[in-house]
Automatic annotation (TrEMBL):
Protein name from the UniProt record: Outer membrane protein beta-barrel domain-containing protein
Superkingdom of origin organism: Bacteria
Lineage of source species: Bacteria, Pseudomonadati, Bacteroidota, Cytophagia, Cytophagales
Keywords recorded for this protein, A-Z: Signal
Signal peptide: 1-21
């Protein structure tokens, strides 16, 4: 079975190979806001970090994350689209589906960027063996970062953000008959992602 990180790298490679066909739709001048509105896509891979206060001191939990953004750029300061992704938390695999906003502040080759994703994290891909039931919840992820134009109608991205994701896990009590324990998760993690724009 593939590890979560191997799955992320495989998806990133697959998207990068298919994006070359779509590069003709978006020029670097579009990224700078000097042409008409057009399609914009982004792929970002990284980690979500959280202090682990329940275990040994000075430790942290980290989980891989992948985000795909497909949208329409109205202006360099405003792109609107949909995001889908995978967040590999220890307790549950969450697949967030959200409305996303992206913006680039400057017309220079290197520019600060911002973004906000808000939506719902589903758990339909999560493993529910041994009668464990997972349920998703709402999600929000504001980010700030940098964009570097790379030629060939692409740009590299780096961003930091703060992701809040709600989820619920229900599992049977080992010693009880038809008794269940429900645990509500509120994941609050620093997000750090690298990616590219096409």
């Amino acid at each position: 079975m593939k590890t979560p990180f191997t799955m992320l790298l495989s998806l990133l490679l697959m998207v990068s190979l298919t994006s070359s066909a779509q590069n003709n739709q978006v020029a670097n001048s579009t990224f700078n806001g000097t042409t008409a509105s057009s399609y914009v896509g982004m792929v970002e891979v990284g980690y979500l970090y959280q202090d682990n206060k329940n275990n040994a001191p000075n430790t942290a939990d980290s989980s891989p994350t992948l985000i795909l953004f497909n949208g329409y750029q109205f202006h360099r300061l405003f792109s609107l689209g949909a995001t889908v992704g995978l967040d590999f938390y220890n307790q549950v695999l969450v697949s967030p589906v959200a409305l996303g906003i992206r913006g680039t502040l400057l017309t220079t080759r290197v520019s600060p960027t911002f973004g906000v994703d808000a939506g719902y994290g589903t758990t339909f891909l999560s493993d529910e063996s041994d009668n464990i039931k997972n349920k998703g919840g709402w999600m929000v992820n504001p980010t700030l970062g940098m964009r570097v134009l790379a030629g060939n109608n692409t740009a590299f991205l780096f961003n930091l953000g703060y992701k809040i994701q709600r989820a619920t896990t229900t599992e049977p009590v080992p010693w009880g008959n038809n008794m269940f324990i429900t645990e509500k998760h509120s994941f609050k993690r620093l997000s750090a992602r690298l990616g590219f724009m096409f």
